[in-house]
Write a structure and sequence with these properties.
Elements: E1 2-4, H1 9-22, H2 41-44, H3 56-69, E2 72-73, H4 76-83, H5 111-124, H6 128-140, H7 158-170, H8 185-190, H9 219-229, H10 255-270, E3 277-278, E4 286-287, H11 289-303, H12 309-326, H13 328-341, H14 353-358, E5 366-367, H15 369-388, E6 404-406, E7 411-414
Helix pairs in contact: 3-4, 3-5, 3-13, 5-6, 5-7, 7-9, 9-10, 9-11, 10-11, 11-12, 11-13, 12-13
């Protein structure tokens, strides 16, 4: 998940460096502080206090989706902030300072923010017209290979294609039936999977082919591609438990086999330290919280919560400070990870992720009616289960870092699109 903006290299690089410590794979407040032009979050309905120009729609979408996932009814003001950001053609940009002003050719709309908004607004309900228009725009900018790039007309990449697949499946639209030039999104995605015969990166997904057409393993793209191959969105349940597996060769792997191969790659990448690493500009390797969270979600979705037990335990112990510094999207990512692994998001390594997320913006309306009656009983059951099970992993999921990508006509800051070797 990415945010793109025409800007100076220096400004983008500064954002990316901050992102390593504070922003998840899906832009969680990448700006170090709010600028004088940034709106008051309390007044506007926007979650987070950082300058929203790069990630306003993204973090708002994740915040609303995470609240819904945790059984919270979001603030109507917060939902309106998001719907007001939509352009007349159905698309979304990272942020529009003047939503009453019509979008024009200079408005930097993109697939990632549009797909995230679709998933959030579908979840909270009551905005079918906004969702339909957004889906119509996404279909209109589909590439001939069946996939999507971050911006309309740019080459397809694993991250963008996967987040759009998530929007399609979340709205009960079969991606197989969304074709361009007889190619579906899955065709584009599988074309970015590295074969098992590769000496390095076997089974991984590449973000995009490099300038020579070679596929380079990218852990962030692998987590995204795994979910995309399974037809999963930002919110997913744990998959059926499977045994650990190595990459399996196939001339034409199925979506499920590509996902299993990606899971094998991520498992190997996480084996040593329990987390993924990131380095920028010659700086030492450091933990990549956002991409590790992505990996937890992806592994749980593919093979059950047990597959993600190691990195999940690491996140519980270490991710609290990262989320506090990063803002609402980071809390949301962790809530998605908790959901995918069956972990209680209100006690994630001692942190109430839901309470912390709610505190970054307008107060929610309350709990869902369907959840209110069962909350007390569920908590009691979970406490009893924990007494019976001394495992450090809970009973109960997300989406690294902002990174700069030059794509010819501009610069792409991609949380989920950074080129890295774990």
């Amino acid at each position: 998940m990415n945010v793109r903006r025409r800007s100076s290299v220096a400004a983008l690089a500064a954002t990316a460096v901050i992102g390593v410590a504070a922003a998840p794979a899906v832009a969680a407040d990448p700006s170090p502080s709010a600028t004088t032009s940034a709106p008051s979050t309390a007044a506007s309905g926007l979650y987070g206090s950082g300058d929203p120009q790069f990630d306003g729609v993204w973090r708002q979408s994740l915040a609303l989706l995470a609240q819904d996932t945790a059984g919270v009814v979001p603030s109507s003001k917060a939902v309106k902030w998001l719907t007001d950001q939509q352009c007349d053609d159905g698309s979304f940009a990272p942020f529009r300072a003047e939503p009453a002003k019509a979008c024009d050719a200079e408005t930097m709309v993109d697939t990632n923010n549009t797909a995230a908004a679709v998933q959030a607004l579908w979840a909270v309900g009551g905005h079918g017209d906004v969702v339909d228009e957004a889906l119509g725009w996404l279909k209109s900018v589909q590439n001939k290979d069946g996939g999507w790039g971050y911006s309309p007309g740019t080459p397809s990449d694993a991250n963008s294609t996967s987040v759009v697949i998530g929007a399609l499946t979340a709205t009960e639209t079969d991606p197989e039936g969304v074709e361009k030039n007889s190619k579906s999104p899955y065709d584009a995605l599988l074309a970015l999977a590295l074969p098992c015969a590769e000496d390095k990166g076997a089974g991984a997904f590449a973000f995009q082919p490099d300038k020579d057409g070679k596929l380079l393993a990218n852990a962030d793209a692998t987590a995204a591609g795994l979910l995309g191959a399974l037809g999963k969105g930002l919110v997913t349940e744990a998959g059926e438990t499977t045994d650990a597996a190595s990459c399996a060769n196939a001339d034409e792997p199925t979506r499920e086999q590509a996902a299993a191969n990606a899971a094998a790659y991520l498992t190997d990448a996480l084996a040593k330290d329990g987390h993924l690493k990131s380095a920028l500009g010659g700086s030492p390797d450091q933990p990549d919280y956002g991409n590790t969270t992505d990996a937890v979600t992806a592994l749980a979705a593919q093979g059950g919560a047990d597959k993600a037990a190691g990195p999940l335990a690491w996140l519980k112990k270490n991710a609290g400070q990262w989320a506090e510094e990063s803002g609402p999207a980071a809390y949301a990512q962790l809530i998605f990870a908790a959901h995918a692994t069956g972990t209680d998001p209100r006690d994630f390594g001692g942190t109430d992720l839901v309470e912390q997320l709610n505190a970054t913006g307008p107060a929610p309306q309350g709990a869902k009616a369907s959840d209110t009656a069962t909350t007390t009983g569920k908590a009691a059951d979970e406490d009893e289960d924990e007494k019976k099970d001394d495992s450090p992993f809970g009973v109960w999921w997300y989406v690294g870092v902002c990174l700069v990508f030059g794509i010819g006509i501009g610069f792409l800051i991609s949380n989920r699109g950074k080129k890295q070797q774990p």
